Amino acid sequence: MEIDAGRKLIMPGVIxxxxxxxxxxxxxxxxxxxxxxxxxxxxxTTAILMPLDSPILTPEDVRKTIAVGEKNSLIDFSLHxxxxxxxxxxxxxxxxxxxxxxxxxxxxxxxxxxxxMMERFMLEVKKIGGxxxxxxxxxxxxxxxxxxxxxxxxxxxxxxxESRPSEAEKxxxxxxxxxxxxxxxNLHIAHVSSRQGVNLVKRAKETNIQVTAETCPHFxxxxxxxxKRLGPYLKINPSLKSEEDLEALWSGLSSGAIDIVATDxxxxxKKEKEIGWNDIWAAQTGIPGIETLLPLMLNEGVAKRxxxxxxxxxxxxxxxxxxxxxxxKKGIIGEGSxxxxxxxxxxxxxxxxxxxxxxxxxxTPYEGMKVKGAPVMTISKGVxxxxxxxxxxxxxxxxxxxxxxxxxx
Length: 409
Description:
The protein is an alpha/beta fold.
């Protein structure tokens, strides 16, 4: 097969390392078919599935999820196990044998592991050469903040942002970094949202602690002030922060303090979101993001000269593959790697519109945003699965990817 790329550029297929693609109890929001259709249209050729509310805590959970994925997915996928409980720590060895080496844990509700359990968890993950993938917000700080707002009968959208202050992220990241140092476990910190988080990760790396971190497009584009306009459609955990935090995250991406950009793709229906205008606490948490990941990074990162093309490719392709044991099969263009490729047109301008996206929920927080730079062809394992916005891939093309034991990226 020959394809004339003309003046367009070719890069490795994008890897979304944090995506809630499928939950058997919430298929009205998304499923393997719809989420990976959106991924293919957006230049994402590999996704690592993150549990939402239905846990992946036993070998049987892993097998069931893989079976559904290999029947319906258009792209290759891997799995994070979780959300970890004290009982599930005993299953880490048996889950690892199936090729899952990353385990999601929380320092806060609703899946909180206390400090003692978190240390025990990291010790077990260390034994199998895995990754402790941690949502880091301090439970005590979150409770205190929310209770104060509830006493004032605050139900407006901004109350959610105020209920999850930067201090909660700072305390939790500082503590899990300490535990990672004590256990020599590979730590990955999910969705860093604050300048304090960036600084803590940077300092940990300078002292050779094995920590990596991600941020998400929504933290690079929106601030809590945008909740006045979009309200519950921007209800996410951690919450949006300030303009200063946004700029610190871009700086962290450029310097290497932050390793990857992932979406935390977690769509909710319009009905589940709209209720939040009257009561933000009742609204679903999360936003769709997998289809817009690459266009947003091309526009906000490359076109605005915050990132070079090579650095963007590291953030979206090679680094997530290295962190999660998929390299060199994924993440690069090279002999022996899968032919996962994205053709991008840096000159193409488009306006993001929900009607042109492939999400089941039918909305995007980036509605009306004008971007420069877009994927125009997606190739998975040598097969064209999307071209000029039309998805050509077939369910079942995607296969489960076993993770290799993690090594310092």
